[in-house]
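Exercise 7. Predict the joint structure of the components listed below.
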Amino acid sequence: MFVDWLHWLSSLTPFDVTLLLLGTMFVDGPRYTLARVLMFVWDFARDCWHDLRGINEHAEFTYCPSVCVILAGYNEAESVGKSIESLVGKYPRLEIIVVDDGSTDGMLRHARPYGKKYDNVLVLGRPQRGGKSSAMNFALPYTRAEIVITVDCDTSLDPNALWECVQFFKDPKVGAVSATVFARNADTNLCTWLQAYEYLHAIFIGRMVAERIGALGITSGAFACLRRDAVERTLGWDVGPGEDLDLTLRIRKLGYTVRCAPYADCYTDVPTEWKRLWKQRLRWEEASVVRSHCRKHVDLSDPTAANFRWNNWWVSMELILINLIFGYVILIYAAWVSINVPRNIPMVLLTFYVWSLGLELIHILSLLYYSRDRLRHLWICAVFPLSPVYQLFLIANRIVAYTKELIWRTSFADNFVPKHVRDRTWKW
Amino acid sequence: MTPSEIVDLSDLFDMRQDRRFEIARPIELIPIGIDGLLDIERRVMGTSRELSVHSLAVDVPRGDWHCSQQLLLGLHWRQEVHYAGIVVRRMKTHERGMFLGAEFGGLAQELLEGDAPLPVFDRDELAFVLPQSPALYENWSQAGVIEKTLLDRVLVCPRCCGVPTFRNACRKCGAGRVRNDRLMHHFACAYVGHASEFCLPSGEVACPKCRLNRLVVGADFEYLTGENQCASCGWRDSETELYGHCLRCNWRFELHQAREQELHGYHVRRLAPLAVITDAV
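Solution:
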């Protein structure tokens, strides 16, 4: 088969090969390759130059604003205690507000002892579930901290994570900082291993690249750092899902910039079953491009809008073009290949696979350069031969999600938000 | 008991006016101290010789027994021991032991007569009290003379056992002057703010975030109970703590510090001489 493939490949003209590989550029991963390589070369050269000149580039934690961490959760009785303990004592000017969003598993009962144990922990509870957004908004009136950080209850932070984040807020133009989320349970099975690999590339490196090209428009809800003034000016989170993306875009609209803190690490549990992963990604994708960029925040890409800014246009267009339009283009491209070269489909797929593996190797090299835990990350990267197949899974998920959202607005029927709230919320 | 054991001896003793019956039953005698406590270690077994409504005569098989003037008598009747207090009037030792002539009465009889001892609330002391010293009841209960029964458990002051009042108070200083924020959550836009932010001068309820007005509670928004703020010390917390305030000594304490006092009543198996005589006859 391999020899047949080489013969088939050598029979193609350079134009045919270019045309063939053009299809892979529609896939989410490879599109960043060039930007990643450029970033890597630039940083490598800069680091070498600094080493030669003896310039010390170690991070200095000199800025220490007051910080409020909001831990909002629903039925997180088992994990809320660990989350609080992972935060206490990690930062000098820290207050923690735990909000129980009407849990039925006794989360409030589990959290209250921490409110008594620590003076800087405030535990709030509500009688019935109102959704994550309102739970976080519930905490806002009770803090005067300069920085608000949202952390999921099942997320644990690295000891320096808070320090790493807040340094960016020295610049008054920074409204939000995106931290890095890693999969805690990468070793559970193949599903979690692939997600861990994806998180490394999409969040750890992907957001560094997005920041460099000025297209960073999201902060993960699992660990997002926000300037309280900016949040107050937006009047808080809107009804989810996708409330983290929505708020980041609204902060950008106010004129703030969004930065990436690659070494502000947090760890979260990712789905361990394919079915649950499929559902989770459907929810994320339904609430992202179509609902946010194409509908609610369409003014970001409208040059006639009063608050129009080219960098916001770039954020929006990048996602609409790459995720939405290219998603359907891949579908059309696959159909075109199937119709025109039906006998050579295995060869075409093998070409794509080999090409993708080559790109993955480049990604891994750049990743290891930036990594601070190379051994662990190298182990996670060992799953890279399966990454192209996983990418296809994600693309299929994305196309299904976008189609459902475009036609039926399914994100507004998601039980992530309780029924009495989603029945009343604005349908964009 | 056979009829032959019952002999009317009333004409033999001039000192006693009541009709007496010769009833031989096992008895126990427990000396009573001046403080009313029973001297269990000096308990002695004996036999009743004769019994009348107000007095009795008993034989004690030990001549060296040190008898006090007041005794508690336990008489075995109907598979149980019934108790009465007696005051010794005559005492005579002989070669087989000791003879005692006694009347029903004394401190023990006072304690055993009347209603069963129950704790009652004393309005002057502001506490639950028993008719006699609790130590005395405990001593009698340990001796098996009276039976202790749990009636209730009450929380009392850890200092003086006085009765307290309880209030939801500040967790820091225990003050009852705690103010609570009332917040509103608008479902449509997830905004949460103080209730005053939602009130328009016209009296309508409108969301300050999305400007939707004429909101209806339950359908469009809900009220949330927010943080508590203490007017005394300024402490802020989501929950209050139950604090007790002793009405007797004015001590303020947290609920978990309150002392749990068990209120016991005491069941008495009182000896009724007439019933024993009637039963025997």
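Discussion. The radius of gyration of chain A is 23 Å.
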